[in-house]
Amino acid sequence: MKKIGYFILAAAVLAALAAGVSATHESWEEKEYGILLAFDDYSADTWEQAFDLFDRYGVRATFFVNAAGPTEFCAEAEKRGHEIGFHTKSHVKLTDVSKEEFYEEAIAPIETFRKQGYAMTSFAYPYGEYEDWMNVELLKYYDTVRGAWHYKGYTKDGIRGSFVESMSIDNIHYETDEQFRRAMRENLEDLVKCDEGTVVSMFSHAIEEGDWCISPRRLEILFEEADRLDIKFYTFRELQG
Ligand SMILES: [Zn+2]
Q: Given this model, what pLDDT does residue 239 score?
């Protein structure tokens, strides 16, 4: 019996190696719960001001940018271990444009990023609006495509090659910081009732006061609540490996 078990394990390792997948994951533990935290659009100044806050809690996030090519912010963010993802060149609603414009907005610009060393393997839909064929098309170019409507759990090995839903944690949804804390606590307590290793995706925009932003204080509340339950933060790219 032992021999058969060993053979199966060895075969699995060989299959993984043949597929170009490492048998062990360097950046994540299978059993750790996680949050894929993201910030959309482009708010380099407020994002940079939060870099130290991220570092204090060991948080790595994904910034889905609207840009024609990499900026100084992109370089600094990746240097600090964050990920740059794409959010179209000019934040168009992709369901409203022609197929040519879809390509120009969502796919063509990533070549400029890739030539300058950015992997650009993650994409988020502006306004969360899409049609099913777009997922198929985008996943030819990206490893993960992210939505913007729901709180949903995923297994870590389900992030690559997939559409992933995400929940907005913008200020507008919560009247007070205390209400925000209670909501995050509930969400995260639900998460740790799921199978071990489940991850969820959450997103906001600028890190400041304002309806469609998250205040630095609330961001810290999220970090505190995650820390309390031993939930880690991941970039999308970390789970695509
Ligand atoms: Zn957006």
A: 96
Q: What is the pLDDT of residues 79-101, one digit of tens each?
A: 999 999 999 999 999 999 999 99
Residues with beta carbon < 5 A to ion ligand 1? Answer: 40-41, 126
What's the gap in Å between 41 CA and the centre of ligand 1?
A: 5
> Does residue 64 sit in helix, strand or coil?
strand
CA–centroid distance, 148 to ligand 1, in Å, is 9
Quote the CA–CA distance of 109 and 113 in Å, as a whole number.
Answer: 7
What tokens were used for 210? 């304002």
Distance 65 CA to ligand 1 centre (A): 8
Handedness of CA 71, 76, 78, 79 (dihedral sign): positive
66 CA to middle of ligand 1, Å?
8
- Indicate whether 197 pLDDT > 80: yes
Dihedral, 44, 50, 52, 53 alpha carbons, nearest 10: -160
User: So where are the chain's domains?
Assistant: 34-239
What is the distance in A from the centroid of ligand 1 to the CA of 52? Answer: 24
Q: What digits encode the pLDDT tens for the residues 142-175?
A: 999 999 999 999 999 999 999 999 999 999 999 9
Q: What average pLDDT does the segment 107-130 reach?
A: 97
Task: Give the pLDDT score at 25.
Answer: 57
Residue 119 Cα to ligand 1 midpoint, Å, equals: 20
Topology classification of domain 34-239: TIM Barrel (3.20.20)
Note whether 218 and 177 are within 8 A (CB): yes
Q: What is the 221 CA–ligand 1 centroid distance (Å)?
A: 23
